[in-house]
Amino acid sequence: MTLAAAPVRDSPLARRNPTVKLVVLSAASVVMLFVLDPVTPAVVYLLGLVGVVVGGRLGLWPVLRAQVPFFAFAVGVFSINVLSRPGTVLWQEGALRVTTEGLVVGGALAARTVAIGILSIGFVLTTDSLALMTSLNQNARLGARPSYALMAGYRLLQQLPGEWATIRNAQAVRAPLGRNGTVRRGPAGFGRAGFALLVLAIRRGEQMAQSLESRGLGLSPRTVWHPVHITAVDLVFGAGTLVVLGGLLVASAVFGVLGGPGALF
Amino acid sequence: MPSSALTGSTAPGRSLASRFFAWHLRDIMLVVVLGAVFGFLYWALVQGWIVLSVAAGPLGHLTQHVLLGGWLIVAPVAIAITRRPFAGIVAEIIASVIEVVFLGSAVGPLLFVAAAIQGAGSELPFALTRYRRFGWLVYAVSGALGAGLVFFYSAFRSGWYGTDLLLVRFVIQVVSGIVLGGLLSKVIADSLARTGVVDNFAIGRAGRAA
Question: Global pTM?
């Protein structure tokens, strides 16, 4: 069990400024919230899939595998809408009924789930977390103390699985044995281990805060090693992506397939 | 510890975010640590929950409301320990940043929005008592509001409006908020105070003054 992300492979997408990527991803996600037809998000998904696979040099298979939870969630969203949304009945069998509205809205929500999903996966798989925090600190003017506190928290996070295993082992040594001689593990043990982990982490967090302060974190002005810049290529990438998305929405509206949140009500 | 010299440096021209964070580093670190631990525990729980919800089929979709209160715990605990305005909102947002940025939760940046709304809902009752009352009722209202406010955002995001189950979802979610996000938070915060590990924070000072 490891919480450390795999190292990011070098690719055109990986070389873009993390803050720019985050802004593009946020803007696209928010825009997609207001699109409620099945076709537009499906096109966004396909474009995003091609962009992530080619631009991130990730290969089709790892990207599809990372999407499995999204496919599962999309299936759930689709089926619950098909079965529980009132409207023109297409098919009925006892308490189960399928409506046209359910199919359309369910399809739209499922397509949106995978569309936002592929963009987020593209971001996560091509962005190093520490590079992102450094970039947010330098390019997005996130304060030094929250930035470095988050990075220290990341270090702690990586140690948590090991601490968790230690706590569980310590519990297992003292735990009552079941009839077949194995350790009985239940939710109560999970809760106790979680609490022990919380206490340990709070104690370590306080030590980290003291050592960061004793090294002068929070004093200004600060200098940085390896400054991160937003280059012209980053700006072209950001603007280009948003222009493509905007163009797609316009085209979708021209062809009359674009649907808004009104479809819900 | 001469922390005032280190932390009171809100020079003019600094960004809103850094003035917003004019906290003791210890308090920032505490909130980050809470976010990391709960992020880790959620991550461990979610692995099991995905299997469960897929196994339950369409009804599995409803299980998310049962567990929603669990996502609220970090806000009341952070408020109870630090007793600072915005601690709940900041704690929720940091927890979501850890989930998205470090744990690679691919829900993406929309999780930040949900987290901010949850934090605001959880924080409101404590703010109304000016961070002075930490009884069962305040925690319960906090959980109910945290779960209740974010419901309207989630309902819009996930398209629950106009479906038959809207009210059922709402009731399950608010009950979960009261039990897990409210009452369980009080149990956790009080237990932490008893261990003595938070003695150097506002909750410890309040305990000694009482």
Answer: 0.82
